[in-house]
Automatic annotation (TrEMBL):
Gene: chrA
GO cellular component, one term: plasma membrane
Organism: Rhizobium acidisoli
Entry keyword set: Cell membrane, Membrane, Transmembrane, Transmembrane helix
Main location: membrane
Protein family: Belongs to the chromate ion transporter (CHR) (TC 2.A.51) family.
A Pfam cross-reference name: Chromate_transp
Record-linked InterPro entries: Chr_Tranpt_l_chain, Chromate_transpt
Gene Ontology MF terms: chromate transmembrane transporter activity
Name by which UniProt lists this protein: Chromate efflux transporter
Length: 473
């Protein structure tokens, strides 16, 4: 018996050493080039970005297997923030430890940050010039069709039964008619889903997921990383807490310093606090967050005019990186219009950096804190039920976004009326913009009828908007 026990211990020790000594053969330099390539091709929103990563990381480079890729993606889907960027952080960390995760995540963001910063400069300096205004006029009309497509795409995946359909409807009524804050909607959906999953109700069980594609499936054992767990990826509470403390300080200390130096009502403090809050509640992707951001940035802070949110989304749609990068444009314009004693362009640049910082530092925090414990989280039925319900509620929020965008795109004037205690935004029919209606209709036909790519549609509408502006100007 003692001999058998010793043999069992020896076997476990050999298995542990085999995992630790397994080398995937991918140098950090090669990984850097691959992540740079992924970043440059990360167009098309999260679905397109995840597809690009799968094609390069799994199919082409064969770094990790299909199951491990989906395993990581499922965890990232549980988190607030852009799941594609977080997936890059996770895989980078899995392959090359902490530095690998940092590099993969930063490269994923950098091209989009630089692109939108350049477009924001042009927008702030020349946005009123006819041809530039025409470009954004065309983008704005096309983005409306893109948002409608997002409602249909996410709704078809999330509204699997009548319960989820009812949750989406309640969320829409809450935000559109009752003006309930988006974070409260997310919280209520999470509680309902958690309880439904905890009690084993069928309607709250998650179903389906992202499809990685067809064709031969690469097994974990055949991948460069293998099927074992790397030594650095095993749960280590001490490491997770140390990394989390460092990232939490990087996230919150700058905001505390701004608050102490300039007070609560300074534009930089407001930007830091507001977008930090968004980093915690942005479940369901960028489109869900934009409904709340648009209302707050326009109505509460006065950072943007209603139509300008669509201009920013058009920038994010046509540049690489996560769609949530549109928040950078919001922060840029907020400080540009409220620069204080600074030069407006300098203030706007600093605000763009601050917005990007508080939006993405938490993404690294979520991954480094939780990734080593992914197996436990993945098997939690109640947590999975909460996330399924949040996604259903997000469909209603995005529908609100589509209507809000539509009103401010297709009509030059929107009036707010009170009806039985409810505040409703209704269009002034005489202010209809026929050119915007025509471009939006054309974009919808291109996307839904002819399956034209989003980027092609946006570029075509941008050119059409410029030509129309020149013709009537």
């Amino acid at each position: 018996m003692a001999e058998m026990t010793d043999n069992g211990r020896a076997g476990k020790t050999m298995e542990r050493h085999a995992d630790e000594e397994h080398h995937h053969g991918v140098s950090f330099g090669d990984a850097f080039k691959v992540w740079l390539r992924v970043a440059a091709l990360s167009f098309g929103g999260p679905a397109g970005q995840i597809a690009v990563m799968h094609r390069i990381i799994v199919d082409e480079k064969r770094w990790i297997g299909e199951q491990r890729f989906l395993h990581a993606l499922n965890y990232c889907m549980l988190l607030p923030g852009p799941e594609a960027q977080q997936l890059a952080v996770y895989i980078g960390w899995l392959m090359h430890r902490t530095l690998g995760g940092l590099v993969a995540g930063l490269l994923f963001v950098l091209p989009g940050f630089l692109s939108i910063l350049c477009l924001s400069y042009i927008y702030a300096a020349y946005g009123s010039v006819g041809i530039v205004a025409g470009l954004f006029f065309g983008l704005k009309a096309a983005v409306l069709a893109v948002v409608v497509q997002a409602v249909i795409r996410i709704g078809s995946r999330a509204l699997r039964n009548n319960v989820m359909l009812a949750i989406a409807a309640v969320a829409f009524v809450a935000i559109f008619f009752l003006h309930v804050p988006f974070p409260l909607i997310v919280l209520a959906a999470a509680i309902a889903g958690f309880l439904g999953g905890r009690f084993g109700l069928a309607a709250f069980k998650p179903g389906g997921g992202h499809k990685a594609g067809s064709g031969p499936v690469l097994s974990d054992a055949e991948s460069a990383l293998g099927e074992g767990i790397p030594a650095h990826a095993r749960p280590n509470l001490g490491w997770s807490l140390r990394m989390s403390a460092a990232l939490l300080a990087l996230w919150l200390v700058p905001i505390a310093a701004l608050y102490a130096a300039f007070g609560a009502h300074d534009v930089f403090t407001e930007i830091g606090l507001f977008f930090s809050k968004m980093a915690v509640v942005t479940f369901g992707g960028a489109y869900a967050a934009l409904a709340y951001v648009a209302q707050e940035a326009v109505q509460r802070f006065g950072w943007l005019k209603p139509g300008e949110m669509l201009d920013g989304l058009g920038m994010a749609e046509t540049t690489p990186g996560p769609l949530i990068m549109v928040l950078q444009f919001v922060g840029f314009m907020g400080a540009y219009r409220n620069p204080g004693s600074l030069d407006p362009m300098l203030a706007a640049t600093l605000a763009a950096i601050l917005t990007t910082w508080v939006t993405f530092v938490p993404c690294f925090l979520w991954i480094f804190l939780g990734a080593p414990f992914i197996e436990k989280l993945r098997g939690n039925v109640a947590l999975a039920g909460a996330m399924s319900t949040i996604t259903a509620a997000v469909v209603g929020v995005i529908l609100n976004l589509a209507l809000w965008f539509g009103l401010h795109t297709l009509f030059a004037e929107v009036a707010t009326v009170s009806l039985g205690g409810l505040r409703l935004d209704i269009p002034v029919l005489q202010s209809a913009v026929p050119a915007a209606m025509a471009l939006s209709a054309a974009a919808a036909i291109a996307i839904f009828r002819f399956k034209t790519s989003v980027i092609t549609t946006l570029l075509a509408c941008a050119i059409s908007g410029m030509l129309w502006t020149l013709a009537v100007g």
